[in-house]
Structure formats: structure tokens, C-alpha cells
Amino acid sequence: MGMASTDALCPTVPSLHALAEHVLGAGLHAATGKIGLRAAPGGFATPESADEALGGRWAVTGTEVRISGPDGSQRSVAITTLRAAGGFFGIEPGMPDRVYTPVTPLDLDAVLPIDPAVAATIGDWLALGQEALTRLGATHPDDGPTAIQLWPEHFDLGSTLGEINFGFSPGDDAISHPYAYVGPWTPKEGSFWNQPFGATRTNGELTTVDQALAFFEEGRALALPG
Q: Given this model, what pLDDT does residue 24 score?
């Protein structure tokens, strides 16, 4: 997996984040009362459990928005604006404030810049994260792993085992490259913990599922009492 440059990453992530919040997340909430999205090939999508309510699976794939119908049909259009994406799915964009205060602006007609290479990097990163988190949960079922979800407000893919958050982020204001994280509910001390909330490793440091899983396992072991 190649590392996207900071200059390319910065405008792409907010664009994808806005689509997650104001289009897929908002549409999912209107139909089901839930907001948790999923990693999907090339990007992210609504959960399969919502297909009937939404009339198919809604996805952001690379530089496109897409609907996969229950009959196997697929329709897609290029990402341009929130208004256009909402129109494609048949909704008025906008995550309601009563659900949570949206992080990204609801600028319906602003062009959403998407760099294809960066979008592909993010899609690959989320796919790697899905596999690593799945394996982590399967290894520690007694920790009660939660469903692996991409939360539109944080725009990261995560799961909680016991009292430790594990996840993959496409990058944010603090860390401009995609990164994985371990976040114990109780702060820890030591060289492993390189962030106020826990530990992170970027996609330059973790390039395989095995490396990501090893990072998670080390963090879990250091975070557990005893």
C-alpha cells in the first residue's frame, strides 16, 4: 500500500467525511434510526442489514457514489457535490443536529475534491482495517468485541474490546496520513503510547494485516491490568 502525500490527502478526506456524514449517514438514519457505516470494496457503504429500507446498498467507491440493488443491478455517478450525491440517492443531504453536531460543513453546492489515488489508498486502508479488526475480535471473543463500524462523526473504522478502542482512521487534522490506533479508556504511560488518547501507527509503518494485528495485540497486552 502506498502512502498518500499530505497535500493530496488533506482535501480528499474532508470530502469523503462529508459524504459519510451528510449523505450515507443521514440517509441511513432517516431510514433506520442508525448511523454506523461499514468498510466496503474501494471505500465505505451502508450496512447490508439496511438494504431493504434503503432500496439497495449505498456506497462511496473511489471517486463515485453507487447503489447496488437487490436484483444485482448497479448504478453510479461521479462525486461532485453533496446536493448531487443526495439527489442520486433520493434524499436531502444533512445529518440532523438532534443526532449529533456534524463535524463537516453542510455546503450543498461546494465541489468535493477527490484525488483518485488518495481515495484508493483510503479504500485499501479501510479494507486492511476491516480484516485486522475482524481477526482481533475472533481471537478475543471473551472481550465482547463490538460490531466493526465506520462512524460518520469521527470518520474512522473501529471496534471496542473490553475497555479498549481499536480502529483505523483515514487521517485527520492531527495526523494527516491514514493511521491505526489503540485507545484504552484509562490512559496509560510508556513509550508505546505516543498520543494523549493512546497509540497510533501510520500506513507507512503498518502495511500488512499481520503488522496491524501485532500492533493491536501489543497495545491490548500493555493496556490490560496486571
A: 98
